[in-house]
Amino acid sequence: MKEKMFFIKTILICCFIVFMAYMLMNVQPDSPTDISEVENRIDSEGDLGTMKKRDSMMIKKVFGLNSAEFEGAVYYKGEGAMDVTELLIIKLKSNDQSETVEAAIQERLDSQIQNFTNYGTNQLQLLESSEIQVVGNYCFYAVSENAVQLKEIFENSI
Known about the structure:
It contains 6 helices and 5 strands. With 158 residues, the protein is an alpha+beta fold. It has a 5-stranded antiparallel beta sheet with strand order 1-2-3-5-4, sandwiched between helices.
């Protein structure tokens, strides 16, 4: 019986060690890159289409996020009511903020999908192929025909 308990304890300890190693390996390091550098790379290398840079008040209006709470935030939005293209990049002050930002982005995306269901098939396709990513202390969100390209530029710039 003692041998069985020792064996079970050994297995549990090994599983815990493997789990902790896995968790530590999946933690993304914070990027020291300034958000203005990321923005400049996206501006120069990416195809933003009809998107224009918007101010921090639009971030608050659209996502409910106060940009002053973050180290930096950049938001581009397409022209017109039927244009769903948008790009949001936020540099977090703390990794604890990532859940709040992800939830706000997901809420925005869900709302847009609901708004364009049944009558905006082109818009719906763009929304369903959106890119959302958290890398270290950066959050990225893009709805665009070029979302994958924009994400790659983002990844390479941080």
